[in-house]
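lol ok so funny story. i was supposed to be doing the assay writeup but got distracted and ended up predicting the structure for this chain instead. priorities right. anyway since i did it might as well share w the group, maybe its usefull for someone
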Amino acid sequence: MDIAFSSTVELAAAVAARKISAMEALDAHLAQIDAHNQAVNAVIALDRDGAHSQAKKADAALARGEALGPLHGVPFTLKDTHETAGMKTTVGFPPFADYVARQDSPVVARLKAAGGVLMAKTNVATMLSDWQSNNPLFGRTSNPWNLQRTAGGSSGGAAAALCAGMMSFDVGTDMQDSIRLPASFCGVYGLKPTEHRVSLAGAFPDPEGAARSVRLMSCLGPLARSVGDLSLIYKIISGPDGHDTDLAPVPVEDMPKLDSKTLRIAFASSFPGFPVAGEISAVVENLARRLQSAGAIVEEAKLPKLDLHDDLEQGGALIGMMLEAAQPEPPQDLTPVSRWFEALARRDRSILAWDRFFENWDALLCPVAMTTAFPHCEPGTPIEVDGKQQSYWMLPAYGAVFNYSGHPALSMPCGLDSAGLPIGLQLVGRRWSEEQLLGIAKAIEPLTGGFRRPPGY
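and the output, tada:
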């Protein structure tokens, strides 16, 4: 058994069957971190002693015949944004360099209660504010496929560590493609659930107990190396928790087993006015043809009649208003409350337009980002796409559309480009239909090739 690159489902089953111990699972991943993290710089705040103590307790519980959780003895990491008792949460921001939460966030508590062994945090962009993971506290994360390229952001450390076999899952945050873009760049899977599906309580450092300002468009979701793992972790962390009052009481169900012949898939190789590399568009179109050959109903999408550029601008404005409200001292020119409600009404129109679109389709297949992993650069530097310079700020556009609309979306690896870098495609579904979306991804998985282990790891 190749422990470092086994799935979460496989690891949990192997520990439960006593084929391996929790300590062996942990040590295999620690060895992978020791071998590769100096170059990749994905894992930070490694709690080696604490993880060994947790693994020892997991093995002792198994020996006593105690009931096992679905993650019993499985080592995992968390993006450095979740509040964790006894472990620093910095979001790569010097004022938070020594911040330690008094208690675990609800998501962290659920993962631990399921038997998971938390061993470290993973690197992020400073304050989660960029699509490269680089910050003054821990430096820059590189892509295991090519160390001269970015792993993406802001969940770049999570995606890179997964790609390099340092753990089997992580939980990221996604306000503007921050799970899906790095998952795409590193060739792993990432799920952004429907807005208000997973608790945001404790999802960001809160030293002063201030009012939670980020309540829209931001989502927590798993990154993993298989659809089955996404489904397992999603089911553990989703649903009401007694802390985040915005959470919808929608039942969390098992991922269905679907036949590709029953699927209705719309595809878009690009969005109007959004740049995208020709190789990515070609992979979208090729997968659409293969799905059609497999018996699915597949058509080129007639997208909602929306100004998607305006949606992106409106989403950015909403984020700005939320951040404005979070300042200790509000600015003198505070945005009028009326503008907040106008912005929400504008957003409602977009949400409803996409809802109507998904009345006719099970999923939309489209790009995750306009390019594959690009060379490390200063934020704002134009990005070359097929020989043309494109705006850096368009990097998350294909994903951010669905942060604005709130619809669930996932990134799945679909081969490599001519430079040997992973290509990720995006599947988007109806709101509150994560299980269906995951089932569709599982049915498609054999056609995509799934996760590939990068050379040298």
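The CA atoms of residues 3 and 260 lie 31 Å apart. The mean pLDDT is 96.
back to the writeup now i swear
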